[in-house]
Batch of 4 targets.
Target 1
Amino acid sequence: MIRPAIWIAALVSATTADAAQQGTKTMEITRKADLKTVDGPADYFTGKVTITGQFQRPEPSRVSGAIVHFEPGARTAWHTHPAGQTLLVTEGVGWTQIEGGPKLEFHAGDILWCPAEHKHWHGATPHQAMTHIAIQESVDGSPVTWMEKVSDEEYLAAMGDQ
């Protein structure tokens, strides 16, 4: 039987060796006080949306992400992600929909997965704000393809009416 301390030491040693081979020298920490917050661009969002801590990791990583806050009634435009998207919901209640599918409600603590190249939107409900951490990967240098805005009729359609 391998003792836990020996197993952990072997794992740390292997992880350190892997990091050294990839040229990693130190961990990078961006402090909360240094995170920038910007308004969500009107071309891609309806309503009041703020984006905090947007990041794009250097190659060979393809990961990017941000903390996105939606005021009540705010939402994204229709869009796709070439490698899919994960949303970690940290506050509030929101809605999401894949084109042609039902509108779904989600809550703080939920994790959403939208598969690659599926046209979708997400945002807050009309009466409650919502915040999520969005994580996606770039393909050919882009993590997202933006499309037309979600109409008020699409947004307000009854659950399950789509």
Target 2
Amino acid sequence: MGILAKNTALGRLLAASATSLARAEHLDETVLTGAIDAGRMVLLANPAHKNVTPTLIGQPAMVKVNANIGTSVLINDVKMEMQKVRLAHKAGAHTVMDLSTAGDLHAIRKDIIAASDMPVGTVPLYGLAQKYVTRGQDPSDFSVEEFLEEIERQAEEGVDFMTLHCGVTARGAAMATGDRRVLGIVSRGGSILARWMKRRGAENPLLERFDDVLGICLKHNVTISLGDGLRPGAGADAGDAAQWEEVVTLGELTLRAWERGVQIMIEGPGHVPLHLVQSQIEGIKRLTHYAPLYVLGPLTTDCAPGYDHIAGAIGGAMAAYFGADFLCYLTPAEHLTLPGPEDVWAGVKASLVAAQSAETALGRSWAVARDLAISKARAALDWEAMAREAIDPQMLRKRRENHRDERECAMCGTFCAIRMVTGIDDAPVPRRGKKKG
């Protein structure tokens, strides 16, 4: 018996959307349904999120891109965060995660859910810890019952997927601290839970009460994104004992979730040198039973501050080629500051480039057709057709603005190789009329 027989909310959702999803994802309905039932795809949509677009994660469906937004203690501008939601959608993101840690988190989350037809994800631990931080208390002072209440509260509000660091064991946290790693624990959620366990000499409450977590998520069809709280934050730490200890635990929890009918994604590595990306992705997928894999980057070099969206796109393209299903963007602000609106745009576009690159290499028909279409448009010097196929049409038009009346690009001009040898009409592109006034 698969997941659909145990998750009635998911079954109703799939029955209503299977045909349109299959068409959009270029898949047969039976392939889609079978993959969801087996846990190899997830369908993000909480029934309480009224305007949500059900979104499929898991290859061979299209590789999806997530955009992180949210306030911080140092930069708390809710209007800007709402602008970032709109820009993420316009740029082509498929989901958005609210990682806010400052302000009225309930109100911020409510506004984001109401404004977004993209599935919305959160990290419930942030909302829990923030209550204590604002009172000047330790962020790990919370009780287990409070944690479960926070998860249920957010599920009732309409959150579609949640990062829950259920696999951070006391043993794994010990492996990641002290002199065992260059950069210790870099996950905020992972570090709070490690602190909670150390102060009490106890095991991870999410692990101990995992059945209760499953009950909440099943009721609301919330997909659990099993967090990588011990992910490597430096290339030198990639593939160490702490990371794999967590991955093995996540694999065990995946089977328990499927037994209850709860949808699961696995969160993947952060910093991974280029030559280790394939083994990391394939190893994680195998140990977690080929559940959908959600990766942050991965970043293939540690020394690109200001350009981490590029390092992440390199790693993301490789990761998707080797089986990752869902790319969490990185922006030029990574490791430096809170992303602004322009960073969100750049981050989404970089991840879309990564996804397109991987899907073309995998021979996916829609990706191959898109690359071929823009190549044919270039051969014809058809700039409008190029814009239609471009990942960022706005950028194409912006960079051509000063020479938009020329048939060639401004780099080649009359030295244009295409016009030189292909016989394209030598007449210039018709001039646009001057604006009045």
Target 3
Amino acid sequence: MARSTPPARRRRSAAGGGAGSAPPRGRGRPGADAPDLRPRLLDAALACYADKGIAATSLRDIARHAGVTPALLHYYFGDGRQLLDAVVEERVLPALAPLREAVAGAGDDMAALVAAFVDGMADVVVRHPWLPALWVREVVSEGGALRGLLTGRIAPAIPVLMASRFAAAQARGELNPALDPRLLMVSLVGLTLFPAAGAPIWRQIFDAGDLGVDDLRRHALALLDRGLELRRD
């Protein structure tokens, strides 16, 4: 009677090693059971997505970037769709969670709400520098793979909530009546996330290597303070 292959041996075989022996562990190629490998693979996927775009990135590209075999990537995530889902759940949404919490906690005070968004977005960009490029490629661009993520899961918690608070403040006479609350939210993104995405261009054009994210934050708040005509106690 044929003997079945033990599960542990099957895992080693799937990871690229020979039957009955652990896979070779060269430099930068940890084994399938390495505890830090999953986060490393997610980071590699993010780097490739931001650099080439999701549709143009293959599992082989990600495996090469991470220094592992494609078989090992399959071991952890299965196919490309499952890997993208994992990146969204374990990287993209957690990156935006502090911004969502800051906006929700700002209440109805417009100055506090605007500052929460601008400061929060600046913090997101500093902590997750991959986000601006990924956003432009996969949300703004037509056919982007993450546009549905924005409209279905992010928009209700951040831009839609903020626009409704802007409208309420406008009705109370606390916000410039010439503004459209919905376009105001678009302008906020335009003053924060897009300049971060275009930083390599405008820094070169203006020889502005001295300007960083904190400068963008102060600039946005200075413009908004006058344009919104916020009431301050």
Target 4
Amino acid sequence: MKLYLTICLGLLSIAWNTIYSQNKDLDESKKRGSEIYQDFCITCHMGNGEGLAGAFPPLAKSDFLMDHRAKSIHAIKYGLQGEITVNGKKYNSLMASQGLTDDEVADVMNYITNSWGNKNDKMVTVKEVADIKK
């Protein structure tokens, strides 16, 4: 019985440390992403993530951002041209590539998908971004 309890406590400790580490990694990524957002995204998408009506789509409570993860990563990584629909409204403006590295794209995705009413349970990783090809 004592061995069983020791094993259970050990497994619980490993699980707790894994969860804590993942949350810490996400928090650090969001912090870096916030700084990237301030430098590259805020001009068009605004400080509150609401964008500019008719010109630049909102990131706040954005169905496109949350429902089209790979397309959102692709847009940040390579830019976006052509019509998209966000929260029922059509947008057709150009988003130029900002020249961000894969780790910067992952960080800004983690920030914007966990801000302004968005909640992302799965952290965007550098590998996931690297796998998105032009």
